[in-house]
Amino acid sequence: MLGPHVDTVNINHQTLFGETMVDLSFLVSDLSAISSLAVILGAVFVVFQLRQNARLIKTANFETKANMSFSVLEIITQESFARRRKNMHDAIKKYSQVNWEGFDDSLEDFEARNFGYIYELIGELVREGIIDFTIAIHSLRYLLVFDWQRFEPLVKHLMERYKVPVNPYENFEWLAQETRKYLEGQGRIDPGHPEIPPAANMH
Known about the structure:
The chain is mainly α. It is built from five helices and no strands. Helix 2 packs across helix 3 (107-127).
């Protein structure tokens, strides 16, 4: 038989072990609480970062649109733009009356197509949201409508010439049509004579 001393040791050992288990249970509980708090704080930080990134992206997009819009304004206010525009109008008017004889692959051909590509590129950038739609319409207005009216016969000739069923200047056409709708809605183009704006709105 074991003596009373051994029993006392066993009792003390069990008591100490029990206290250790209680202390560990509190520790586990505290760690669990800290872990949950860390997860919550992490989620809050992620949301904050996403919002900050969204603001930065929005600001960057705005600056990009502003820069592109200013670029459009620079293009249409340059002296060379007016000269190229006049050459395009004259060339298409001249050669469309003689069934495009002598036009194909001439300097006037390449210059006219290159001029139309300016509007084509602007239309594509507007569709992609890089240039603001409203700014483009307000900036170009009658230029777009009248230049498309003049340019359209050349587009039809190019489609016949190269046997392509798709308009190679579809963004130019789209932007011109959208601009026309806007101007008609504002009463700035006479539906009976779409090539002539009302006299009150000519300035």
